[in-house]
Amino acid sequence: MYKLIERFAGAAGLLLIFGATSVAAGTLEEPTGPVLLTISGEIENTNGEGTAAFDLEMLRALGATEVTTDTIWTPGTITFTGVELKTLLEHVGATGTEIDATAINNYTVVVPVEDAVEDGPILAYEMDGRLMSRRDKGPLWLIYPYASNAAYRTEVIYSRSIWQLDRMAID
């Protein structure tokens, strides 16, 4: 049960009190480190002008998931660590049906929101326990669990596996 305490002007909306914790509806914490990812478009929760910006610690705070798989781009089997795409989209309150995922070099792919399922793709920030540099396809790489499901070993899925990801627009 919550009690409405105060209404204030601006994009933040309503200030609500849940027990002893106050929350501004739709507001995410601000990044304190370098921003690795910016999400815009059809999202409900932001920390900027219609955008949600994330640093590494904010991504880690969403919960780490590991995917151990081989890829067509790397030798051997690798353990990737990151946040599930499903969790990230839920966190920002994504309401669209498509993700325009864009890399640092402006390469863009379209990823259906329906790909964001439990035990599905992750936004990886570590490869074999090390942060990924730009040279290693980082700092963020959308990785599907290719080895665990034959449905993820298709040209369509490989084309969605964007590396050096830094922007997502939800449409």
Could you explain the architecture of this structure?
With 171 residues, this protein is mainly β. The chain folds into two domains: 30 residues, no CATH class; 140 residues, Oxidoreductase, molybdopterin-binding domain (Sulfite Oxidase, Chain A, domain 2). It has a five-stranded mixed β-sheet with strand order 5-4-13-8-9. Strands 6, 7, 10, 11 and 12 form a five-stranded antiparallel β-sheet that branches. Strands 1-2-3 form a three-stranded antiparallel β-sheet, with no helix packed on it. Strand 10 and strand 11 form a beta hairpin. 29% of the residues are buried.
List the helices and strands and how they pair.
Layout: E1 3-7, E2 14-18, E3 21-24, E4 35-41, E5 52-55, H1 56-61, E6 65-70, E7 77-84, H2 85-92, E8 98-103, E9 108-112, E10 122-127, E11 130-131, E12 141-143, H3 155-160, E13 165-170
Parallel strand pairs: 4-13
Antiparallel strand pairs: 1-2, 2-3, 4-5, 6-7, 7-10, 8-9, 8-13, 10-11, 10-12
Shape: globular
* Total of DSSP H or I helical runs spanning 4+ residues: 3
CATH architecture of the largest domain: Alpha-Beta Complex
CATH fold description of the largest domain: Sulfite Oxidase, Chain A, domain 2
| Helix-strand makeup class | mainly beta
Arithmetic mean of pLDDT: 87
User: What's the helix-strand series?
Assistant: EEEEEHEEHEEEEEHE
Residue runs with pLDDT of under 50 for 5 or more positions: 1-25
Number of strands: 13
